[in-house]
Amino acid sequence: MNNKLLLDNLRCIPDWPKKGVNFRDVTTLFKNPSCLKEINKEMYEMYKDKGITKIVGIESRGFVMSSALAIELGAGVVLCRKPGKLPCDTIQQSYAKEYGKDTIEIHKDAITSDDIVLLHDDLLATGGTMRAACDLVKKFNPKKIYCNFIIELIHEGMHGRDLFDKDIEITTLLQL
Fold first, then answer.
1. Fewest C-beta in 10 Å: which of 12, 33, 40, 159?
2. Residue 61 is a catalytic residue
3. From 24, 38, 42, 61, active-site residue
4. For residue 52, what is the DSSP state?
5. What is residue 156's predicted lDDT score, i.e. its pLDDT?
6. DSSP state of 81
7. How far apart, in whole angstroms, are the C-alpha atoms of residue 154 and residue 25?
């Protein structure tokens, strides 16, 4: 955890998107081939023996590593998107955000009760989006659910991990 290569290449943007926020920009990790390889290697080691059959990538930065890891694990990829972005019938989950309500959705045929599912996103802060994604995936009754993030913010009153049921294993590569 807290891999030096990743930390050294992570860009932080002060006061974005609003004053007082120190935004962690994972795109600097994605554009660096060594960082991409390291992220994928670390995630593979975490999940190689878990029997993962589907990886749910959370829009949009979660799509990047979910696809790369799925290839290594021999798993499928499921896209979790905002409404109107998926072309077939979907199941939705709404959730409260700081300034209102949002909704995410997954295709109705994306996950079965035989699946072992890993949900992946770039950042765990307040946890609202991933909690909604977990609730959405639970509607499919998979065998097991795991959650993974590249970064977990553990300061500034961020307690996103506390939102999740105790039976959901949460892993992160960096804790800041």
1. 33
2. yes
3. 61
4. -
5. 63
6. B
7. 16
